Amino acid sequence: MKISTKWLSDYVNIDVEPQVLAEKIERTAVEVDEVYRLEKGLKKIVVGETLKVEKHPDSDHLRICQVNVGEDEPLQIICGAPNIAAHKKVIVALPNSRIAGNVKIKRGKMRGEVSEGMICALQEIGFVESVVPKKFVDGIYFLPEDAEPGAPVYSYLGMDEDIIDLDVTPNRADMLSMRGTAYELAAIYDKKVTLPRLEIKESKNDNIENYLEIAADSKLASTYLMRIIKNVTIGESPMWLQKRLWNAGIRPLNNVVDVTNYILMDYGQPMHSFDYGKISEKKIIVRLAQPGEVLTTIDEKERKLNSHDIVIADGKGPIALAGTMGGQATGVDNGTTTVALEAAVFNSSLVRKTARRHNLHSEASMRFERGINRATVVEALNTAAQLIADLGNGEIVSGIAEGTKEEAVPVEVSVSLDKINKVLGTSLASTDVEDIFKRLGFGVDVSNAVFNVSVPPRRWDISIAADLIEEVARIYGYDKLPATLPKGELTPGNYNHSQKMIRAARQLLEAAGLTQAISYGLTTAEKAGRFLMQPSETTQLNFPMSSDRTTARMNLVSGLLDDVAYNVARKVDDVALYEQGRVFYRKAGTVRPIEVEHIAGVMTGLFKTATWHEPKVPVDFFLTKGIVEHMLHALGITENISYIQADGHEEMHPGRTADIYVDDEFLGFVGEIHPNLCKEYHIDRTYVFELDLQKIIDMDKQVKSYIPVSKYPAITRDVAMAVDKDVKNSDIIDCIEKNSGNNLAKVELFDVYEGEHIAANLRSLAYKLTYQNKEATLLDEEVTKDFDKVIDKLKEEFNAKIR
Description:
Number of domains: 6
Distance between the termini: 88 Å
CATH class of the largest domain: Alpha Beta
Number of strands: 42
Strand content: 25-35%
């Protein structure tokens, strides 16, 4: 909200420097983004009058202008603007002047002709293009006829006004108006607010009942009012109105639309003007849009309406999106003679959804979403109607057409002096607090140190005692509140079991060489449904940020694959990432999802690059599995872990994926991404894992304890066998461990061979068995006896051929 201090001074007399005023506003009410004056930094820019305009002899588009700038002789200035003409008041930058961007204008020659300055467009002296009147956007600006040649242009254009740009928070929507801001500053500086009112003059020979029939649902619009102004002449607004609008950041259009925008900034009341002659059947209906209805808005875009959109309709169909944007078909144009003027209070929730659905966030929709002063709707409507009649030489038809009308009443709130002082830590007297409420313009009655406060409708953000305490703190001054240290028994902070396990898992993966990644919790429905570890319904957002963020994720791997693709696209081919976070599962028939802690990793390329003394280490299944295994063991999951070949994951390579179990509990999976999915992401061979971290947290853990190194020697035995290719390594190891007695310490697979000298359907596996007794020295005979038993069992169960 851009506040002009000159406009503000019409309502409250505050003789304070703009920077000081801005600092006070920021410390008391809302943040201030910027304080500026458009004339600052400009130099020697004056009013000029074009006496003569001739074609340049060596150019098709340049003109030689003789310009009166209040000196004895006119200046010759070369101008290329398409709309330059004689006998016009223009903006002239004199020689050695400074225009926007600190650009210096010098005397010079253009195509051989002398140019003593520059005729400027508004953009060239600091105006943003969005506020420049459309007919001057591509050319120079013509000043009013009463502008005096040679005089500085700043006062004619409102550039001598100080502007304070407020960043108004949603709870202080009352400050989205000049009058609301005036009340706030009057309270801060203990001043009186004086608000002028226009006396409305209605035509006694005509009544609005002859023009309109209105029907409105109070659930959609608690107030819906209209006035008719006839015999209006559409034209430019006077300069005072244009200056106020562009200093507020709004482009002037015509005397009707400009008035509605002026009232928007002044009262904070959004309004809309219709061309009455284009309203079908002279009916206005406020209703929800019907299936299949479309509306072309004034920005010339056709919009498919939703059954939650509030529309203003006539006898044929929608003519405006309520509180958001009007329709093109009934817009005011140069041929308009009768104006139907609307002022309303629409359902804030529905306006917000409509603005978001159609991406039509405007000054009007912002105010309807946050709230408006319901007590001044009629006053704003009357003021706007009178201004339109005055500026357009029209007549106001007698009466107001009412669809609905809400009576705005003050809110009664009570708070005690003891409560105020206790919360703020102050020792304020009753008279001090009463004075603050009166400065705010609140009605107040004090009884037994209890303040019964009547809050006017213009402060709809106040409804409970805590709101009143905040108002006292603001006006009294946050900087005056006493500062005290908190009191109470101090307790040491510590992590609970879940937090310790989560942090331990992260540290283990980082120690293994993976880098933490953080992905969005929202993704597409397709990506959310991949890599599922349990059946789940998707959780869709009603109003997603974008088409890529519509669904709550049900896995972490999809987000990590996006990260890999991002890196690979930027020539980073060696990637090792992990993510710890929550996924969202939802059972059929339920609304809210269940949040589950997961941990996942992704690896591609080289795990280690080659050095002069070590070869490179590419990422593969066993490296990825080893990291998972190391993490589980370090977290205390050491027994009954099994890795079972899996083919039920569509997104994973069917022959290079394993499901991870502890006893019969499914923990997750590890393996290689399916080649088709790699092709989709434009990445090379990639390995991933994802585990249900919540199950790991809840499982019984193996308590770590120190085991002394045995002082007795170990004995090893090697065995190589040819077995069928379908036999699993895990099954062989289980067989060895079950049948080798109590002295077996470790089993290692150290060689796998397929090829010559062995049948095509067989594979050679070689194992090293380590035997050790921690209590005594093993005898060779004991080890041989246990080893022979294992050999016999392998032959029996797997038809192994010992080599």
